[in-house]
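thought: fold this chain, then report.
action: predict
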Amino acid sequence: MKLPALDPADPAGLDDLLTDDEKSIRGAVRQMLDRSVEPYIAEWFENGAIPNVRELAKELGSLGVLGMHLEGYGCAGMSATEYGVACLEIEATDSGLRSLVSVQGSLAMFAIWRWGSEEQKQQWLPRMAAGETIGCFGLTEPDAGSDPASMTTVARRDGDDWVLNGRKMWISNAPFADVAVVWAHTDDGIRGFVVPADTPGFSAPEIKHKMSLRASATGELVLDDVRLPADAVFPEVRGLKGPLACLNEARYGIVWGSLGAARSSLEIARRYSIERVQFGKPIGAFQLTQQKLADMSLEYIKGYLLALHLGRRKDAGGLRPEQVSIGKLNNVREALEICRAARTILGANGISLEYPVIRHQNNLESVLTYEGTVEMHTLILGEVLTGKAAFR
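observation:
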């Protein structure tokens, strides 16, 4: 039997591992991005804003990717692997756009879907799935990042109401969000609250001067005597298991998404190496360039296989948070190294927004940190390997 020719963009034949449905979702997401985002994303990154973010959110909602792995309430109810494939395609366009989708679906929507009352779910999830309402997730504070238990935001009872005071920092989607899921200390432990953005005392000033995730709006959440009705709180969940379950959902999307930035940079570098001529031949004909491309390709292949393995485990109901940490730690770290190597192949052109590589590289510096730093995921794996916690 004659074997088919190898695809230089997929030398390991990874595409054969996807189902027809997964390929169909990938194609639909890619078609939408090529039409509505790719022609403009470099300009949005340079200007530090997506000018039509609400229209874009509605288009993403109509495509079904907002909360796409959730069941009911207008959500698409797709598999974890299908969600991962979509995240990869979105981040191949830009990490900031994938952040918008992740914060909406895996943090804000998942928190309400998993921990909210039936009334909260009915009120918010259908509009969020459609992209008509945008959400954000308030956990990180100026002095409480990797250690969320040290948060200082508090909620106290005042009659039947709750009154919230505190600050949250580095909150994606915050400047244009319609609703925020906010975690705060109470007399009964850490609890989550659904806070409409038009509540008196609530504001979300934008954080400026970022050099990464520039196409993603980031802000603070300022809560000054924000008064909420009794039914604004999640009814049952107490402690850190509430927000950490949401973070685990978002980290899973990052395992896939970071590969998108890597794939985009690798493919640009591969094609550039064939077209760029120096010393009388394409630079791809030199051994050092081929070594870079081979190493980049190997790390991408291994990362993809890990993401797919975790996706299949999640679909089977057997994925542990520690395993998500393995994927986040490895795939973001290796994706960033792929982007850095791709930049060297492009030479000076690698720092130009005419090519996506420096944009992906800068974005991944943020992805490396959020949803758990390298240090935190290293210690999670270290505890698995030794049985000894080393966080303090």
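thought: worth noting. The mean pLDDT is 97.
final: tokens above.
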